[in-house]
Amino acid sequence: MSWKVIGASVVGSSHIHNSAPCQDSCFYHVASDATGAELLVALVSDGAGSAQFGEIGSEISCEAGGKRLLEIVETNGEAALESSVAAEVLDVIRTRIDEAAQARGVTPRALACTLLGAVVGPTRAFYFQVGDGAIVSREGGALAPVFWPESGEYANMTYFVTDANASEHLRSELRNAPDELSLFSDGIQRLALVFATETAHEPFFEPMFKALRGSPDDQTDSLCAALEHFLSSDAINERTDDDKTLILATRLPGAGSVSSV
Q1: Could you give the 3-state DSSP secondary structure of residue 126?
Q2: Locate the PPM-type phosphatase domain: which residues (predicted)?
Q3: Residues with Cβ < 8 Å from 119, sequence gap 6 or more?
Q4: 30 pairs with which residues across the strands?
Q5: Residue 213, exposed/middle/buried by CB under 10 A (0-12, 13-18, 19+)?
């Protein structure tokens, strides 16, 4: 396999205190297209804290969005990676959320959630995002955010896939394929990003990427468990009481060749 990938979503200490569920979800899978080329698909979604069924919205976003992305890349490979894919995935998610809202007798806003997505093939990467949280990528050098987290008009506000104008806040970008990348929800963005300079806080990531690069293939499960333990640790909970999701992916040496988009 061309990638090593780990990920975890953990409930925040404030949600534990209030007996509330974890409203974060994540999805990641390494797929193969018709030629045998491998593509990494990864999604993170954070249910709005004010949404009654935010955890359902985030689950739908990752499950429905991940399923549609896999169908696209398994059929057409990285040649399919273009801006229209992000709009299509958003439409699929919104439709599924509308159906779930109707079944519960609530408005879609009750399932409000953010969305971050990445699809990486041998040479090209496609990223998209609605709301906060972030994706950082390493294209041969330092880690850097793909998009800066988008806040709303007021503090602690952002945009959601259920917003009537969600398509206006859907950002997408096609780039060269990275060597490494990470997706994470806003629960850890204050630890993972330097807001003063709008850069990635590399000391947060480097120990984890180093461990992932050096691990045998059969240790993925144990690394996922270690990641979950880290995100649930007192050291992290002292700095953020929100739900937390983190996906880390590193490309194996010699897997794929990077060319200009």
Answers
A1: strand
A2: 11-219
A3: 39, 40, 41, 42, 69, 73, 78, 81, 85, 125, 126
A4: 40
A5: middle
Q: Which residues of 120-150 are buried (b: 16+ CB within 10 A; e: fewer)?
A: bbbebbbbbbbbbbbbbbbbeeebebbbebb
Q: Give me the helices (H) in the chain, please.
A: 13-17, 54-76, 83-104, 189-192, 202-214, 220-231, 234-237
- Distance, in Å, from the CA atom of 197 to the CA atom of 218, rounded to the nearest integer, reads 38
Structural domains of the chain, ranges and CATH numbers in brackets? 3-251 (3.60.40.10)
Residue entry with tokens 């439709």: 95
**Would you say the C-alpha torsion 53, 59, 60, 65 has a positive or negative sign?**
positive
- Rounded to the nearest 5°, which phi and psi values hold at 203? -60, -25
Each residue's pLDDT expressed in tens, for the chain with a length of 261 residues: 689 999 999 999 888 888 889 999 999 999 999 999 999 999 999 999 889 999 999 999 999 999 999 999 999 999 999 989 999 999 999 999 999 999 999 999 999 999 999 999 999 999 999 999 999 999 878 899 999 999 765 557 899 999 999 999 999 999 999 999 999 999 999 999 999 999 999 999 999 999 999 998 888 899 999 999 999 999 999 999 999 999 999 998 766 544 433
- Per the CB < 8 A criterion, the answer to whether 179 and 185 are in contact is no
- CA gap 20, 13 in Å, rounded: 10
